[in-house]
């Protein structure tokens, strides 16, 4: 794999608090942002594979959307644990969370993957894999959210990695949207971009739960069938977006939706070819809610609780030769 390393110089978490707070207050009726010791994220409602988000914090952007559009490049298959090793993460212990395309080569179906795995002493033999994937069931046509059996993926993946330690993080809460910024993650990242401009990359990753309200998601179906020897080609981004299936799911205090996110304030001159925001979600209660998070639908009812940390390094792994001018799934 071709790997390029980009060191980052993020501002302190205390400084980011002062940047994010006004944006939250303008967009939500009730909000808070502070620097806090990370709770044990292995516990409910988060269900992560490691306790925290600290220690050698980094982001891996693997593959990319050009592997899906204009035609799927099905040969682009990755093992995320091997990517963690290639990025120099310690074999002693670590964790990765994020968002990307599920391993069709393992599952025999397209899916939205919410990677969530940690390891101890060995990237593979010592792995604790709590990843979930969301698919469209072939028989029922309904959404199904299930545990992923391996640490592989396909096409594209955005991972936040760390030693999994419980250090200081950003704790953000928001309830009752009153502003026009319907996406929780975009509200945060747009505030950071506005403060620091488009020539400095500030990258964050972590987890948030949607405690209440209705939110919108998409899930990839199977690729359309084509005659033998032909490849399916999307003629434009609209056709690709129309191919996706869209779903609205409710959250509640007793049944929250867990969201794993990676996002960036900027990609100067597109030199890294970054996916600017990517969030995939899952549920552990058998309710089959999950997929690629877009935004809330009932602002007055929505409630979020997030724990985020900044990355100190980006590893760009197997970047496609052509990078799209914008994300396909705006």
What's the gist of this structure?
Its main location: nucleus. The protein is mostly beta strands and 330 residues long.
Could you explain the architecture of this structure?
- The protein is globular, with a radius of gyration of 18 Å.
- Strands 1, 3, 4, 5, 6, 7, 8, 9, 10, 11 and 19 form an 11-stranded mixed beta sheet that branches.
- The protein contains 5 helices and 19 strands.
- The chain has one domain (about 5-315): 60s Ribosomal Protein L30, Chain: A.
- About 15% of the residues lie in helices and about 40% in strands.
Output the keywords.
eleven-stranded mixed β-sheet, eight-stranded antiparallel β-sheet, single chain, disordered C terminus, 330 residues, 60s Ribosomal Protein L30, Chain: A
Give the topology.
Layout: E1 3-7, H1 13-27, E2 28-37, E3 58-63, E4 77-79, H2 80-86, E5 93-101, H3 104-107, E6 112-114, E7 116-120, E8 127-129, E9 132-136, E10 143-147, E11 152-162, E12 168-177, H4 184-196, E13 203-219, H5 237-243, E14 245-251, E15 257-264, E16 277-282, E17 291-296, E18 303-310, E19 313-317
Parallel strand pairs: 3-19
Antiparallel strand pairs: 1-19, 2-12, 3-11, 4-11, 5-6, 5-7, 5-11, 6-9, 7-8, 9-10, 12-18, 13-14, 13-15, 13-17, 13-18, 15-16, 16-17
Helix pairs in contact: 1-4
CATH superfamily: Hypothetical protein, similar to alpha- acetolactate decarboxylase, domain 2
Helix content: 10-25%
**Could you tell me the number of beta strands?**
19
Proportion of β residues? 35-45%
User: Helical stretch count?
Assistant: 5
Topology-level CATH name: 60s Ribosomal Protein L30, Chain: A
* Integer tally of domains: 1
Along the chain, the helix and strand elements come as EHEEEHEHEEEEEEEHEHEEEEEE
Question: Which structural class fits the helix and strand makeup?
Answer: mainly beta
Biggest sheet character: 11 strands, mixed
């Amino acid at each position: 794999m071709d790997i390029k390393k980009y060191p980052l110089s993020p501002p302190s978490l205390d400084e980011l608090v002062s940047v994010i707070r006004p944006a939250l207050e303008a967009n939500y009726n009730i909000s808070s942002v502070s620097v806090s010791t990370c709770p044990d994220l292995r516990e409910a409602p988060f269900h992560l594979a490691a306790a925290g988000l600290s220690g050698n914090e980094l982001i891996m952007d693997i593959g990319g959307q050009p592997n899906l559009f204009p035609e799927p490049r099905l040969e682009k298959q990755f093992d995320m644990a091997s990517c963690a090793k290639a990025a120099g993460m310690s074999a002693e212990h670590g964790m990765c969370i994020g968002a990307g395309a599920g391993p069709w080569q393992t599952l025999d179906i397209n899916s939205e993957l919410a990677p969530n795995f940690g390891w101890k002493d060995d990237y593979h033999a010592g792995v604790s894999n709590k990843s979930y994937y969301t698919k469209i069931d072939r028989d029922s046509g309904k959404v199904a959210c299930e545990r992923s059996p391996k640490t592989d993926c396909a096409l594209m993946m955005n991972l936040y990695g760390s030693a999994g330690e419980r250090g200081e993080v950003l704790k953000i809460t928001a309830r009752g949207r009153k502003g026009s910024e319907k996406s929780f993650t975009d509200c945060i990242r747009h505030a950071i971009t506005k403060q620091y401009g488009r020539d400095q990359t500030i990258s964050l990753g972590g987890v948030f739960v949607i405690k209440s309200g209705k939110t919108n998601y998409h899930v990839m179906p199977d690729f359309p069938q084509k005659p033998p020897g032909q490849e399916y080609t999307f003629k434009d981004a609209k056709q690709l977006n129309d191919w996706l299936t869209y779903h609205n799911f409710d959250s509640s205090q007793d049944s929250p939706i867990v969201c794993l996110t990676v996002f960036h304030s900027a990609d100067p001159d597109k030199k890294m070819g970054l996916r600017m925001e990517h969030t995939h979600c899952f549920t552990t209660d058998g309710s089959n809610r999950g997929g690629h998070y877009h935004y809330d639908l009932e602002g007055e009812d929505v409630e979020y609780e997030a724990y985020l940390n900044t990355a100190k390094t980006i590893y760009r792994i197997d970047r496609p030769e052509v990078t799209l001018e914008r994300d396909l799934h705006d």
